[in-house]
Amino acid sequence: MRYAALGAFFWAIALPFTLLGQPTKSTPKKNGARKAPITQPAPAAQISPQSILVVPNWLPPVNPVQPAATILHDLVDTKLDVKFDWAKQWLLGVATITVRPHFYPQTQLVLDAKGFDVKSVKLLAGTKEKNLNYQYDKRRLSITLDKAYARTEPYQVRIQYMAKPNELAAGGSAAITSDKGLYFINPLGTDKNKPKQIWTQGETEGSSCWFPTIDRPNQRMTQEISLTVDAQYKTLSNGLLTASKKNSDGTRTDTWKLNQPHAPYLAMLAVGDYAVINDTWRGKPVDYYVEPKYAASAKAVFGNTPQMMDFFSKKLGIDYPWDKYAQVAVRDYVSGAMENTTATIHGENVQLTKRELLDENRDDVIAHELFHQWFGDYVTTESWSNLPLNESFADYSEYLWAEFKYGREEADLQAHKKLGYYFEEAQGKREPLIRYRYADKEDMFDRHSYEKGGRVLHMLRGLIGDDAFFTTLNRYLAQNKYSAVEIAELRMAFEDVTGEDLMWFFDQWFMQRGHPDVAVSHSYADGKVTLHVVQKQDTLYQPIYRLPVVVTTWSNNQPTDHRIVVTKAAQTFQLPVNQKPSLVQFDAEKTLLADLEEEKTQDELVYQYYHARNFLSKLQAIEELKPKVGDLLVSGMLRNALNDKFWGTRRAAAEALRRYKGPEGGAVRQDLKRVAITDKDSRVRSTALLALGTFPNEDFSEVYAKALADSSYLVMGAAINALAKAPTVATREKINSLQNETNPALVTALSGYYALNGNADQYQWYLHRLDDSNSAELYQVAQDFGTFMLRMPAVERDKGLRKLEVMARTHPEYYVRLGAYHGLRTLSENMPNLKGTLADIRGKEKDERLIGIYNLLQ
């Protein structure tokens, strides 16, 4: 799964209110033997006040142990025959479920079935059916069998039911914002801006909201789903389309069959008016389901999929293991994307026009979900505690694909951004990757399981080498195919391939919380560099890390690599050199997951930039150098970086040159103007425009005017953002001509511009945008609307106030409600009567994330 990428802000404000727990579990070793149990520091509640001074804010509460589900029955096969009542938003289904006792004889079958009306439950014996007694509490269906069944006796039950997802209590999390499993989008067709669709979301336990099953990740089943729909709609489900039958009532029944077993949470269906673009990989169907208006650009968005399938198949030594692969875009999706077996669901923002593709692509999420077809679908975590076995690998696949397709610099830039997301989350939350204690299973979907886990895998790859790393992944997949696993299987695969005991690595990186906080300094004397390394992290709650690392010394412009292993809280190393080095660089390969502080002079950082062997070394120099008045050496380096071959370096330099006021400031601004107009990458041009916008009392309106005619929406949006602070009469008409554009970069830029410079003419624009913008845009637009309405006469605000209030109370996305609340809060400064409304909104809010935020805002 790829959770919705709404920016680090939302994680920073939401996750401190959903802190997780701390694992303790022994790790099985080969041949049934066990290594010593993983030990953790005692939780805060068990430590006497005298033993510590301060409990860190990121230390989670003690949550309950969450073991893997006990297996009483094995799912074997599920056959579903379903149709839909759009008006009532019901699914009418018949489920035929084949099961067998796992080991012990069973006289009862318990199925997860949430919010159903159960019509009948029957045992199938050949051509005969027998009614079975059952009890149902709207959550679980407990069926009394006609006898005790042994593990050698599979049997079938048939259940007729209606699923009513909208009658379930609302639930959700930061990563998966709703958990009702089955979703009807615009079911009555009343919203002319939105298509009618039906789709499902199974992870974590949403499948049992639309069919009865044992809704646990350690189950596997084959399946067949027959969908009866109005003839104009396309359908999609797992596996291959084996039949499509026209019915006399104008409907059509499509039957989809998956012959290989997978976990129930990976079952899916989608129904809607789609254009289906066909592709292939080695003779297997590869299809892209998009809204018809995106048919012309669908191949450009998804077209790298067959090459990804080929790359991953070769890299892993295991060909894509399923019969087909399809991807579908749906409206109002409750997460980022979901790796349902053979049929990935994406949110609507995966769809891009050819012009929008000038600014960005969707390769990261496409690669992420595709890699799950191996890590997550082919081999599945046995419990949500082991979720990183799915998500860390999918996260790392984004690096692997970027490295292969676009080069290591692109991959490293992506990894740097992701590491920043983890560090931001770690300010308020630190958990082991593998967590056997948590409050809610969906708490596992965080920056730890994804970004930290991906970085840990990158370190492991660097530690043992590419050959061993990918040989191990092949072994792990081959040995565990179509089964559920825990972290021990992964460790043992790496140990079997390398011949090394890697318990130390898995213990400190997977089983313990936190990360190293490392301070490095050095000195030179008598032909030696003395390197001082201090691990500064709180070792009461985090380990002292074992850190294999490369230190590079540069003398006579020649690098020498020294491989050291840090094992102590404070450690000194002697590195032989033939003269005083121009640079000493700790972790020169930039693979270490650590909060690293190195003592370096300005001259050393400049030297590092010019002699960098990788992008991250250049980026470190750019980010750590602070240009000041008279720093010609630094400004010269940054101007040089504006011409680097890699766009990420050029963008970092443009960002670093903001507000530069040195003696060559005029030359700097001329360079930024050149870059803003001529750089071949729109991300660099837009950053240069925003940098120009930070220089006070200077007129760059000519540059902004040219940017408003750019081919890139991102660049146009940056120009509008810059003009918001320094509007000009000459550009006003051009900006107003963009009001019908729906590109997110333009919508949010226009929203910010009109918040500061709009008039009554834009009132209807805001009202329209509040109706048809996606959730990520709405968060910002709602806040800007509040600022904009301060410019409106009070008597004209009623309609906008009502819209914001309804949104703050009822919008399904919590962060949109927060944005609307902020909009009202801005208005309350001039309209004191709104304070009571805001208090009522706060008092009736049920989402714990928002409640916590509101408490901070008061």
Characterization of this structure:
GO terms for molecular function: alanyl aminopeptidase activity; metalloaminopeptidase activity; peptide binding; zinc ion binding. The protein is α+β, with helices and mostly antiparallel strands and 858 residues long. Helices cover 36% and strands 23% of the residues. A hairpin with a 3-residue loop joins strand 6 and strand 7 (140-149). Helix 15 (665-678) runs antiparallel to helix 16 (682-692) and helix 17 (701-707) runs antiparallel to helix 18. The longest helix is centred in the middle third of the chain and has 19 residues, at 388-406. The chain is globular and about 90 Å long. The relative contact order is 0.07. The model is unreliable at 5-52 (pLDDT under 50).
Short description:
This protein is of the alpha+beta class. It has 26 helices and 29 strands.
Layout: helices, strands, pairs:
Elements: H1 8-14, E1 73-85, E2 90-101, E3 106-112, E4 116-125, E5 128-131, E6 134-136, E7 140-149, E8 155-163, E9 182-185, E10 197-200, E11 221-230, E12 234-237, E13 240-246, E14 251-262, E15 269-272, E16 275-281, E17 284-290, H2 295-302, H3 305-316, E18 325-330, E19 337-338, E20 343-347, H4 363-372, E21 379-381, H5 388-406, H6 408-426, H7 448-464, H8 466-480, E22 483-485, H9 487-498, H10 503-511, E23 517-525, E24 528-535, E25 547-555, E26 558-566, E27 570-576, E28 583-586, E29 595-598, H11 602-611, H12 615-624, H13 632-641, H14 647-656, H15 665-678, H16 682-692, H17 701-707, H18 713-725, H19 729-736, H20 744-757, H21 763-772, H22 775-789, H23 798-810, H24 814-828, H25 834-844, H26 848-857
Parallel strand pairs: 1-11, 17-18, 18-20, 21-22, 23-29
Antiparallel strand pairs: 1-2, 2-8, 3-7, 4-5, 4-8, 6-7, 9-10, 10-15, 11-14, 12-15, 13-14, 16-17, 19-20, 23-24, 24-27, 25-26, 25-28
Helix pairs in contact: 3-4, 4-5, 5-6, 5-7, 6-7, 7-8, 8-9, 11-12, 12-14, 14-16, 15-16, 16-18, 17-18, 18-20, 20-22, 21-22, 22-24, 23-24, 24-25
